[in-house]
Amino acid sequence: MVTSEPNYRLKLPVAPVQLMMEEVQAFATRINGTVIDTDSAIEGWIDRCFSMLPIPAESLKEGENVVEIRTDYHEASNLEALYLAGDFGVSISGKKCSIVASPARVAASDISGQGLPFYSGAIRYTLKVERKPTEGERIFLTVPEFEGACLKVVANGNTHIIGWQPYEADITDALAETDEIALELVLTRRNRFGPLHQLPVRAPNYGPNNWFTEGEGWSDEY
After folding, report:
1. Quick check: 154 and 181 in contact, CB under 8 A?
2. Residue 181: exposed, middle, or buried by beta-carbon count in 10 A (0-12, 13-18, 19+)?
């Protein structure tokens, strides 16, 4: 068994929590001493190598929680990162993280400081358009820049993907039927899988070496 300093604290109540891990059948897993049934694992989440183990709510407690995994370690074994997943937020103070309630609202800006530092799914913003196009007029939604994989513009049952320059969508026809459109930002997996300790935070590109920084290129904090 390998132990590490706990850096996550739980503040109850939170939504159901799952433990995401690789090679789930190779490990005996306990949460605060409670055995987690690996037969309940949901396979193939994000990647086929990951499985999701539902954590019984009664096994969690407020404050520090201990995740324990045991295995017969040999030359073919791998020790990979473990992840907690669920509909919750995370509060960071230095190197310490607390699992808290999910934020009810987020602003259209960097979400990492709004209780979602490790979120890597999609975010949908609802926009109101205050006027209709006049005859012969075309209306375009333009997004000069964004950080994510792509944007989805959803209006009147139609979806337009913004994933390349000039980063705009013609919404004229949709506005003939509605004055409300949804802008869905599809994030990358950068927030979840990192690199989470690299300095500077952003790099021109990412490869294996970004996970092996040291000195001025490393931060103990997230």
Report:
1. yes
2. buried
Place of tokens 């990979």: 80
Per-residue model confidence as pLDDT tens digits over 152-205: 999 888 888 999 889 998 888 888 788 888 999 999 999 999 999 999 998 888
CA distances from 136 to 143, 160, 173, 177 (A): 23, 21, 11, 16
Mean pLDDT per 10-residue segment, the chain (222 residues): 55 77 92 89 87 90 90 87 91 89 88 92 88 84 89 88 90 83 92 93 90 94 91
Report DSSP state, residue 147.
Answer: S
Nearest to 124 by CA among 174, 181, 175: 181
Q: Which domain holds residue 157?
A: 122-186
Q: Do residue 35 and residue 87 come from a single domain?
A: yes
- Check whether residue 63 and residue 131 sit in a common domain: no
Whether residue 128 is contained in a domain is answered as yes
> Both 19 and 89 in a single domain?
yes
Those residues whose C-beta lies under 8 Å from the C-beta of residue 142, and which sit 6 or more positions away, are 166, 167, 168
pTM above 0.85, yes or no: no
